[in-house]
Amino acid sequence: AFKQIASILLVADAKNMKRSLAIALQYAEYNIPMLIDINMIDEADARGIKINFEKLSEILGVDICSSIAPEGIGVRKLLAKLKSPHIAKKLVTYPEWINNFIDIIKKLCRDTDISPRVIGLLLLAGDRSIEEYLAQKFGPELVDELKDLAADYRKEDTETFRALLVNLYNKKADQIVKEIQEVEPPRRNPHLVTFGDWCTQLHTGVPIAIAVLILVYLFVGSFGATFLVDTINGVIFEGYLIPWTAKLLAPIPSPFFRDMFIDPDFGILPTGIFLALGLVMPVLFCFYLVFGILESSGYLPRLSILLDKVFRKMGL
Q1: Same domain? 273 vs 217
Q2: What CATH number does the domain containing 114 carry?
Q3: Which of 2, 59, 128, 147 has its CA 20 to 30 A from that of 48?
Q4: pLDDT above 60 (res 2)
Q5: What percent of the chain has a predicted confidence (pLDDT) above 70?
Q6: Span 262-282, mean pLDDT?
Q7: What is the DSSP string of the chain?
Protein backbone atom coordinates (compact mmCIF):
# COMPACT_ATOMS: atom_id res chain seq x y z
CA ALA A 1 0.00 0.00 0.00
CA PHE A 2 1.16 3.52 -0.78
CA LYS A 3 1.41 5.97 2.09
CA GLN A 4 1.76 9.71 1.82
CA ILE A 5 5.37 10.80 2.30
CA ALA A 6 6.00 14.34 3.52
CA SER A 7 9.58 14.70 2.29
CA ILE A 8 12.68 12.78 1.29
CA LEU A 9 16.17 13.10 2.75
CA LEU A 10 18.69 11.54 0.39
CA VAL A 11 22.12 10.96 1.92
CA ALA A 12 24.57 10.80 -0.97
CA ASP A 13 28.06 9.34 -1.00
CA ALA A 14 30.51 12.04 -2.03
CA LYS A 15 32.84 9.36 -3.43
CA ASN A 16 30.14 7.91 -5.71
CA MET A 17 27.99 10.79 -6.90
CA LYS A 18 26.80 9.02 -10.04
CA ARG A 19 24.98 6.33 -8.08
CA SER A 20 23.49 8.82 -5.62
CA LEU A 21 22.31 11.16 -8.38
CA ALA A 22 20.71 8.27 -10.26
CA ILE A 23 18.62 7.60 -7.15
CA ALA A 24 17.81 11.31 -6.80
CA LEU A 25 16.60 11.46 -10.41
CA GLN A 26 14.29 8.55 -9.73
CA TYR A 27 12.92 10.15 -6.54
CA ALA A 28 12.32 13.40 -8.45
CA GLU A 29 9.57 11.68 -10.45
CA TYR A 30 7.39 11.36 -7.33
CA ASN A 31 6.85 15.13 -6.86
CA ILE A 32 7.87 14.82 -3.20
CA PRO A 33 9.95 17.61 -1.59
CA MET A 34 13.53 16.45 -1.29
CA LEU A 35 16.75 17.49 0.42
CA ILE A 36 20.12 16.04 -0.54
CA ASP A 37 22.96 15.70 1.95
CA ILE A 38 26.34 14.84 0.47
CA ASN A 39 28.15 12.90 3.17
CA MET A 40 31.80 11.79 3.55
CA ILE A 41 33.16 14.90 1.86
CA ASP A 42 36.42 14.44 3.77
CA GLU A 43 37.02 11.06 2.14
CA ALA A 44 36.14 12.50 -1.26
CA ASP A 45 38.56 15.38 -0.70
CA ALA A 46 41.30 12.92 0.21
CA ARG A 47 40.74 11.29 -3.18
CA GLY A 48 40.93 14.60 -5.00
CA ILE A 49 37.17 14.82 -5.68
CA LYS A 50 35.82 18.39 -5.75
CA ILE A 51 32.04 18.97 -5.96
CA ASN A 52 30.33 22.21 -6.97
CA PHE A 53 27.40 22.20 -4.53
CA GLU A 54 25.88 25.45 -5.80
CA LYS A 55 25.76 24.25 -9.40
CA LEU A 56 24.30 20.90 -8.35
CA SER A 57 21.57 22.70 -6.39
CA GLU A 58 20.81 24.82 -9.45
CA ILE A 59 20.60 21.78 -11.72
CA LEU A 60 18.37 19.68 -9.46
CA GLY A 61 16.31 22.53 -8.01
CA VAL A 62 16.77 21.38 -4.41
CA ASP A 63 18.97 22.43 -1.51
CA ILE A 64 22.29 20.62 -1.21
CA CYS A 65 24.01 20.13 2.15
CA SER A 66 27.43 18.65 2.86
CA SER A 67 28.45 16.78 5.97
CA ILE A 68 30.97 14.61 7.76
CA ALA A 69 28.53 12.60 9.87
CA PRO A 70 30.93 10.88 12.34
CA GLU A 71 32.29 14.29 13.38
CA GLY A 72 28.91 16.04 13.34
CA ILE A 73 30.05 18.57 10.73
CA GLY A 74 27.15 20.00 8.72
CA VAL A 75 24.42 18.35 10.80
CA ARG A 76 22.97 21.63 12.15
CA LYS A 77 22.67 23.11 8.69
CA LEU A 78 21.08 19.89 7.48
CA LEU A 79 18.44 19.96 10.23
CA ALA A 80 17.64 23.60 9.43
CA LYS A 81 17.24 22.91 5.71
CA LEU A 82 15.13 19.85 6.42
CA LYS A 83 12.25 22.09 7.50
CA SER A 84 11.71 23.48 3.98
CA PRO A 85 12.66 20.99 1.25
CA HIS A 86 11.84 21.63 -2.41
CA ILE A 87 10.46 19.50 -5.23
CA ALA A 88 13.27 18.45 -7.57
CA LYS A 89 13.25 19.07 -11.29
CA LYS A 90 12.41 16.18 -13.62
CA LEU A 91 15.51 15.97 -15.78
CA VAL A 92 15.24 12.54 -17.39
CA THR A 93 13.90 12.49 -20.95
CA TYR A 94 12.00 9.31 -21.80
CA PRO A 95 11.41 7.82 -25.26
CA GLU A 96 8.31 8.96 -27.10
CA TRP A 97 6.40 5.70 -26.57
CA ILE A 98 6.80 6.02 -22.79
CA ASN A 99 5.51 9.60 -22.89
CA ASN A 100 2.54 8.46 -24.99
CA PHE A 101 1.66 5.82 -22.41
CA ILE A 102 1.98 8.38 -19.61
CA ASP A 103 -0.44 10.68 -21.48
CA ILE A 104 -3.00 7.87 -21.50
CA ILE A 105 -2.53 7.36 -17.75
CA LYS A 106 -3.16 11.07 -17.18
CA LYS A 107 -6.54 10.73 -18.88
CA LEU A 108 -7.61 7.47 -17.23
CA CYS A 109 -6.21 7.92 -13.71
CA ARG A 110 -7.25 11.28 -12.35
CA ASP A 111 -7.40 12.51 -8.75
CA THR A 112 -4.68 10.17 -7.49
CA ASP A 113 -2.22 10.75 -4.67
CA ILE A 114 0.57 9.57 -6.95
CA SER A 115 1.82 11.39 -10.02
CA PRO A 116 0.41 9.89 -13.27
CA ARG A 117 3.97 9.97 -14.60
CA VAL A 118 5.06 7.66 -11.77
CA ILE A 119 1.99 5.45 -12.21
CA GLY A 120 2.83 5.00 -15.87
CA LEU A 121 6.46 4.12 -15.20
CA LEU A 122 5.55 1.65 -12.46
CA LEU A 123 2.91 -0.03 -14.63
CA LEU A 124 5.41 -0.45 -17.44
CA ALA A 125 7.86 -1.90 -14.90
CA GLY A 126 5.25 -4.41 -13.71
CA ASP A 127 5.14 -3.09 -10.15
CA ARG A 128 2.51 -5.05 -8.18
CA SER A 129 2.05 -2.44 -5.46
CA ILE A 130 0.87 0.18 -7.96
CA GLU A 131 -1.51 -2.37 -9.45
CA GLU A 132 -3.01 -3.02 -5.99
CA TYR A 133 -3.29 0.73 -5.39
CA LEU A 134 -5.12 1.30 -8.67
CA ALA A 135 -7.38 -1.71 -8.09
CA GLN A 136 -8.51 -0.26 -4.75
CA LYS A 137 -9.08 3.17 -6.25
CA PHE A 138 -10.54 2.40 -9.70
CA GLY A 139 -11.39 -1.30 -9.65
CA PRO A 140 -9.67 -4.41 -11.03
CA GLU A 141 -11.22 -4.03 -14.50
CA LEU A 142 -9.31 -0.83 -15.21
CA VAL A 143 -6.12 -2.36 -13.83
CA ASP A 144 -6.39 -5.32 -16.20
CA GLU A 145 -6.94 -2.92 -19.07
CA LEU A 146 -3.91 -0.84 -18.07
CA LYS A 147 -1.72 -3.93 -17.69
CA ASP A 148 -2.61 -5.09 -21.20
CA LEU A 149 -2.02 -1.60 -22.53
CA ALA A 150 1.36 -1.43 -20.78
CA ALA A 151 2.36 -4.77 -22.29
CA ASP A 152 1.41 -3.50 -25.76
CA TYR A 153 3.48 -0.33 -25.36
CA ARG A 154 6.39 -2.09 -23.68
CA LYS A 155 6.62 -4.90 -26.29
CA GLU A 156 9.26 -6.62 -24.11
CA ASP A 157 9.38 -8.10 -20.62
CA THR A 158 9.41 -5.95 -17.49
CA GLU A 159 13.05 -6.75 -16.71
CA THR A 160 14.13 -5.23 -20.01
CA PHE A 161 12.11 -2.09 -19.28
CA ARG A 162 13.61 -1.77 -15.80
CA ALA A 163 17.07 -2.06 -17.32
CA LEU A 164 16.09 0.72 -19.74
CA LEU A 165 15.09 2.97 -16.83
CA VAL A 166 18.31 2.24 -14.96
CA ASN A 167 20.29 3.09 -18.07
CA LEU A 168 18.41 6.39 -18.53
CA TYR A 169 18.95 7.42 -14.89
CA ASN A 170 22.63 6.45 -14.92
CA LYS A 171 23.24 8.23 -18.22
CA LYS A 172 21.70 11.46 -16.95
CA ALA A 173 23.49 11.13 -13.61
CA ASP A 174 26.81 10.68 -15.41
CA GLN A 175 26.10 13.84 -17.41
CA ILE A 176 25.40 15.82 -14.23
CA VAL A 177 28.53 14.47 -12.52
CA LYS A 178 30.67 15.74 -15.39
CA GLU A 179 29.20 19.22 -14.85
CA ILE A 180 29.53 19.45 -11.06
CA GLN A 181 32.55 17.30 -10.21
CA GLU A 182 36.27 17.60 -10.81
CA VAL A 183 38.80 14.96 -9.89
CA GLU A 184 42.32 16.05 -9.11
CA PRO A 185 44.90 13.30 -8.68
CA PRO A 186 45.87 13.32 -4.99
CA ARG A 187 49.44 14.20 -4.24
CA ARG A 188 51.31 11.09 -3.25
CA ASN A 189 54.84 10.50 -2.13
CA PRO A 190 56.64 8.64 -4.95
CA HIS A 191 58.56 6.56 -2.41
CA LEU A 192 55.31 5.39 -0.81
CA VAL A 193 53.90 4.55 -4.24
CA THR A 194 56.99 2.47 -5.02
CA PHE A 195 56.81 0.70 -1.66
CA GLY A 196 53.11 -0.01 -2.23
CA ASP A 197 53.98 -1.65 -5.54
CA TRP A 198 56.65 -3.73 -3.84
CA CYS A 199 54.05 -5.02 -1.36
CA THR A 200 52.05 -6.63 -4.18
CA GLN A 201 54.95 -8.24 -6.07
CA LEU A 202 55.86 -11.84 -5.23
CA HIS A 203 59.64 -11.40 -5.02
CA THR A 204 59.39 -8.35 -2.73
CA GLY A 205 55.91 -8.69 -1.19
CA VAL A 206 56.52 -12.05 0.50
CA PRO A 207 59.61 -10.85 2.45
CA ILE A 208 57.74 -7.65 3.38
CA ALA A 209 54.75 -9.70 4.58
CA ILE A 210 57.02 -11.90 6.70
CA ALA A 211 58.68 -8.81 8.17
CA VAL A 212 55.28 -7.29 8.95
CA LEU A 213 54.14 -10.49 10.70
CA ILE A 214 57.34 -10.52 12.77
CA LEU A 215 56.82 -6.88 13.77
CA VAL A 216 53.19 -7.58 14.67
CA TYR A 217 54.26 -10.53 16.81
CA LEU A 218 56.97 -8.50 18.53
CA PHE A 219 54.58 -5.64 19.28
CA VAL A 220 51.56 -7.72 20.33
CA GLY A 221 53.28 -10.81 21.72
CA SER A 222 56.42 -9.37 23.27
CA PHE A 223 55.56 -5.75 24.04
CA GLY A 224 51.84 -6.14 24.77
CA ALA A 225 51.55 -9.65 26.23
CA THR A 226 54.84 -9.54 28.12
CA PHE A 227 56.07 -6.04 28.93
CA LEU A 228 52.72 -4.28 29.31
CA VAL A 229 51.09 -7.18 31.16
CA ASP A 230 54.01 -7.53 33.59
CA THR A 231 54.16 -3.77 34.12
CA ILE A 232 50.44 -3.39 34.77
CA ASN A 233 50.27 -6.43 37.08
CA GLY A 234 53.53 -5.77 38.91
CA VAL A 235 53.41 -2.00 39.29
CA ILE A 236 49.75 -1.00 39.24
CA PHE A 237 47.89 -4.02 40.61
CA GLU A 238 50.37 -5.69 42.96
CA GLY A 239 52.08 -2.42 43.89
CA TYR A 240 49.02 -0.25 44.48
CA LEU A 241 45.53 -1.65 43.88
CA ILE A 242 45.79 -4.98 45.71
CA PRO A 243 47.49 -3.51 48.85
CA TRP A 244 44.97 -0.64 48.92
CA THR A 245 42.10 -3.08 48.54
CA ALA A 246 43.52 -5.27 51.32
CA LYS A 247 43.69 -2.25 53.65
CA LEU A 248 40.16 -1.25 52.66
CA LEU A 249 38.80 -4.73 53.45
CA ALA A 250 40.93 -5.25 56.58
CA PRO A 251 38.17 -4.09 58.97
CA ILE A 252 35.94 -6.97 57.79
CA PRO A 253 36.13 -9.59 60.59
CA SER A 254 35.32 -12.61 58.43
CA PRO A 255 38.35 -14.11 56.59
CA PHE A 256 35.91 -15.78 54.20
CA PHE A 257 34.58 -12.46 52.89
CA ARG A 258 38.07 -10.95 52.69
CA ASP A 259 39.38 -13.92 50.73
CA MET A 260 36.33 -13.84 48.48
CA PHE A 261 37.50 -10.45 47.22
CA ILE A 262 41.31 -10.44 47.44
CA ASP A 263 42.47 -14.07 47.58
CA PRO A 264 45.29 -14.29 44.97
CA ASP A 265 44.02 -17.62 43.60
CA PHE A 266 40.22 -17.40 43.79
CA GLY A 267 39.39 -13.80 44.76
CA ILE A 268 36.95 -11.81 42.65
CA LEU A 269 39.31 -8.88 42.15
CA PRO A 270 42.63 -10.67 41.38
CA THR A 271 41.13 -13.41 39.15
CA GLY A 272 38.23 -11.41 37.73
CA ILE A 273 38.61 -7.69 37.27
CA PHE A 274 42.38 -7.41 37.65
CA LEU A 275 42.99 -10.42 35.41
CA ALA A 276 40.79 -9.04 32.65
CA LEU A 277 42.23 -5.54 32.84
CA GLY A 278 45.83 -6.59 33.40
CA LEU A 279 46.09 -9.57 31.06
CA VAL A 280 43.46 -9.36 28.32
CA MET A 281 43.13 -5.61 27.79
CA PRO A 282 46.81 -4.85 26.97
CA VAL A 283 46.93 -7.63 24.38
CA LEU A 284 43.66 -6.57 22.72
CA PHE A 285 44.73 -2.93 22.77
CA CYS A 286 48.01 -3.69 21.02
CA PHE A 287 46.35 -5.99 18.49
CA TYR A 288 43.65 -3.51 17.46
CA LEU A 289 46.18 -0.69 17.38
CA VAL A 290 48.38 -2.61 14.94
CA PHE A 291 45.35 -3.76 12.93
CA GLY A 292 44.12 -0.17 12.64
CA ILE A 293 47.53 1.05 11.48
CA LEU A 294 47.75 -1.68 8.84
CA GLU A 295 44.23 -0.94 7.64
CA SER A 296 44.65 2.84 7.55
CA SER A 297 47.99 2.60 5.75
CA GLY A 298 46.42 0.57 2.95
CA TYR A 299 48.65 -2.45 3.53
CA LEU A 300 45.82 -4.97 4.06
CA PRO A 301 44.37 -4.58 0.53
CA ARG A 302 47.88 -4.99 -0.88
CA LEU A 303 48.37 -8.07 1.30
CA SER A 304 45.17 -9.57 -0.12
CA ILE A 305 46.47 -8.98 -3.66
CA LEU A 306 49.75 -10.64 -2.73
CA LEU A 307 48.01 -13.66 -1.18
CA ASP A 308 45.84 -14.00 -4.28
CA LYS A 309 48.99 -14.23 -6.40
CA VAL A 310 50.52 -16.77 -3.99
CA PHE A 311 47.41 -18.97 -4.02
CA ARG A 312 47.23 -18.79 -7.81
CA LYS A 313 50.79 -20.10 -7.95
CA MET A 314 49.65 -22.96 -5.69
CA GLY A 315 46.73 -23.67 -8.01
CA LEU A 316 44.03 -22.45 -5.61
Answers
A1: yes
A2: 1.10.287
A3: 59
A4: no
A5: 92
A6: 72
A7: -------EEEEEETT-HHHHHHHHHHHHTTT-EEEEEEE-HHHHHHTTEEE-HHHHHHHHTS-EEEEBGGGTBTHHHHHHHTTS-EEPP--PPPPHHHHHHHHHHHHHS-S-SS-HHHHHHHHHTT-HHHHHHHHHHH-HHHHHHHHHHHHHHH-S-HHHHHHHHHHHHHHHHHHHHHHHEEEPPPP--HHHHHHHHHHHSHHHHHHHHHHHHHHHHIIIIIIIIIIIHHHIIIIIIIIIIHHHHHHHHTT---HHHHHHHH-TTT-HIIIIIHHIIIIIHHHHHHHHHHHHHHHHTTHHHHHHHHHHHHHHHTT-
Q: Is residue 2 part of a domain?
A: no
For residue 36, the model assigns a pLDDT of: 96
Looking at the fold, whether 196 and 309 belong to one and the same domain comes out as yes
- Give yes or no: residues 75 and 111 share one domain: no
Distance of CA 157 to the CA centre of its chain: 33
Q: Are residues 33 and 114 in the same domain?
A: no
Nearest-10 crossing angle of helices 158-180, 53-60: 140
Is residue 18 in some structural domain?
Answer: yes
pLDDT band at 270 (very low <50, low <70, confident <90, very high): low
Dist CA 66 CA 225 (whole Å):
44
Domain ends where: 87, 112, 130? 87
Domain enclosing residue 201, as ranges? 190-313
The domain boundary residue, chosen from 183, 202, 224 = 183
* Residue 3 forms part of a structural domain: no
71, 101: one domain: no
Cα 283 from Cα 286, distance rounded (Å): 5
